């Protein structure tokens, strides 16, 4: 059985190829006619890893300024349903920049909710754009979250931010 499992991180890309023999020769070498074995290899699992270092457009050092690519927005369906049948979603806005940022704005075109959203955490700034955390600082690796309810999730993408002070 061949199985490919890709794993992506900001620092590396890895592909694991796992071969697991289905033969019954328990460690003996097989001939080329055994479809469950790699010729010349014992009956066990093998892993080959390929690591490629990549640099993304986002900042990785404190000397560089941060941009919208350093803001991660994740929407999670909580599985909770409110009266009226709308699903509750939780939005987590995480600052991946090594610097503190403020005035984080998300593009949330069409956003609506049947439950109140704390305006200190998320409120409209200009119809389609929404200010996160009231424009207040969000520390490096910190997350600001809020919940809303609707019959579907809304895609939200970072639109703008300010780096707080020297970075």
UniProtKB/TrEMBL annotation:
One GO biological process term is: cell fate determination
Record keywords, A-Z: Signal
What InterPro entries does this protein map onto? TPD1 (IPR040361)
Domain of life per record: Eukaryota
Family annotation (PANTHER family): EXPANSIN-LIKE EG45 DOMAIN-CONTAINING PROTEIN, PROTEIN TAPETUM DETERMINANT 1-LIKE-RELATED
Protein name, per record? Uncharacterized protein
Organism, per UniProt?
A: Eleusine coracana subsp. coracana
In the UniProt record, what gene is named as encoding this protein?
ga21963
């Amino acid at each position: 059985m061949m199985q490919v499992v890709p794993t992506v991180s900001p620092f590396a890309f890895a592909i694991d190829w796992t071969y697991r023999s289905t033969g019954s020769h328990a460690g003996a070498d097989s001939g080329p006619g055994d479809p469950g074995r790699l010729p010349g290899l014992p009956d066990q699992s093998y892993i080959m890893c390929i690591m490629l270092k990549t640099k993304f457009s986002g900042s990785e050092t404190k000397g560089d300024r941060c941009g919208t690519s350093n803001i991660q927005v994740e929407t999670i369906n909580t599985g909770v349903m409110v009266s009226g049948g709308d699903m509750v979603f939780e939005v987590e806005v995480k600052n991946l920049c090594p610097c503190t940022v403020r005035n984080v704005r998300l593009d949330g075109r069409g956003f609506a909710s049947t439950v109140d959203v704390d305006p200190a955490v998320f409120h409209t700034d200009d119809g389609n754009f929404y200010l996160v955390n009231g424009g207040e600082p969000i520390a490096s690796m910190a997350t600001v979250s809020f919940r809303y309810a609707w019959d579907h999730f809304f895609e939200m993408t970072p639109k703008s931010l300010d780096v707080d002070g020297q970075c």
